[in-house]
Amino acid sequence: xxxxxxxxxxxxxxxxxxxxxxxxxxxxxxxxxxxxxxxxxxxxxxxxxxxxxxxxxxxxxxxxxxxxxxxxxxxxxxxxxxxxxxxxxxxxxxxxxxxxxxxxxxxxxxxxxxxxxxxxxxxxxxxxxxxxxxxxxxxxxxxxxxxxxxxxxxxxxxxxxxxxxxxxxxxxxxxxxxxxxxxxxxxxxxxxxxxxxxx
Length: 199
Hints:
- The protein contains two helices and 13 strands, in the order H-E-E-E-E-E-E-E-E-E-E-E-E-E-H.
- By secondary structure, the protein is of the alpha+beta class.
- Strands 1, 3, 4, 7, 10 and 13 form a six-stranded antiparallel beta sheet that branches.
- The longest helix is centred in the C-terminal third of the chain and has 20 residues, at 177-196.
């Protein structure tokens, strides 16, 4: 029985380690691989623009905007038609557990008014960020705990509509390693108890 439990533990931990990788990640650098910036961009590989417009920004560009780290591409969440955009990820199937969401945002870098964006993950996270025009790039990190399996979308909804918006880069959603570690400790405890009591 001990060997069977050990085999079950190994198989379970292997399964979790395989699935414990990145659930979703995008730095937008794969967009327009042979081109630069594009206003009112709506051909994202992992996103849909469900309302308004957004601009794809490449560093360098004609507007002197800089993506996170000073390289690559990012997204201006208030596109070029005076109707701020809503960026919605592809559907994400998430098992119960704790996940870490991180993303980089900066002010509009154009000495305009402050902007705000609402970030949500279908009922599990809803938070609004107010960012001043000259606020530098900052990394936002949030932990999200799910108690049941769900299929959800990550949404960035920009407010306003003056064609000058918050910049977004480096979006990532990953399972928290502690969730896997706790499961492993629990199974090891079960094996130890079975062995001690002769099960």
